[in-house]
Amino acid sequence: MDALTCLLTRRTATRLVEPGPTPDQITAILGAATTAPDHKMLRPWRFVIVRGEARTTLATAITAAAEAIGDLPEPVVRKAAGKATRSPALIAVIAARVESRVSVAEQDASAAAAAQNICLAAHALGVASAWKSVPLPDSAPVRALFGVAAGEELVGWVELGTQAPNVPVPPRAAVPLGEVAAELEVDGSLRPVATAAPVIV
Ligand SMILES: Cc1cc2nc3c(=O)[nH]c(=O)nc-3n(C[C@H](O)[C@H](O)[C@H](O)COP(=O)(O)O)c2cc1C
To answer: Are 157 and 183 in a shared domain?
Structure first.
């Protein structure tokens, strides 16, 4: 698959089943994550792989976090914990901010780019992915499990596996470029881009 096709055809998986990524695929995906644009090469990101039985350990931490809130209905707690095991594997992305003149916003942007690289590298390898918010990301049990230090934040996690063949991925409408992109004219005005977005295969 060429790079542009990879970008245009990546979709968020609607249901992930086995097989999950192989160890070699995870290594390649992590390698791609580390090529995210990175101002001053600060490496303001870390990654934690969760797969196999360790997913249950994660589910237990989420349950502890949800129960600590005190008044969540049991189905809500169960649903939050179930997110840990709904894919064969996941990679959590942590914004590991560094003391620097580079702003936190730029460092977090690099971490987000790393997460997108994970999704794209997975797609290039034939592995389906879904970038999801981490349940209860600010809770002590979840932060401790991922080793999130003070000043660090969980950007999200990317679930990895195989798209279930019987669960459709709804079509994605092309975004009219004129609504989101403009070109600066010499007179200082912004002219909306008129050309159509590339066809999404
Ligand atoms: C930071 C971040 C967190 C997200 N969290 C969730 C989530 O918790 N649940 C969800 O259904 N989609 C979540 N999404 C959106 C999906 O990853 C996906 O981008 C969206 O469903 C559009 O699908 P597409 O990628 O196929 O265009 C999140 C996206 C981002 C960037």
So the answer is: no
> Which residues line the annotated binding site?
10-12, 39, 131-133
For a substitution probing ligand 1, which of 7, 133, 158 has the most ligand atoms within 8 Å of its CB?
Answer: 133
Q: What is the ipTM of this complex?
A: 0.98
Instruction: Say whether both 16 and 34 belong to one domain.
Output: yes
| Domain range enclosing 132 | 3-168
| Side-chain half-sphere CA neighbours of 44 within 13 A | 28
**pLDDT above 90 for 110:** yes
Residue positions forming the annotated binding site for FMN: 10-12, 39, 131-133
Instruction: Look at residue 200 in the predicted model and tell me its pLDDT.
Output: 56
Ligand 1 atom closest to Cα of 12? 26
pLDDT at 194 over 90: no
Q: How far apart are CA 85 and CA 83, in angstroms?
A: 6
pLDDT of residue 143: 98
Query: Is 121 within 8 Å of 91 (Cβ atoms)?
Result: no
| One domain, residues 90 and 185 | no
Q: pTM for this one?
A: 0.95
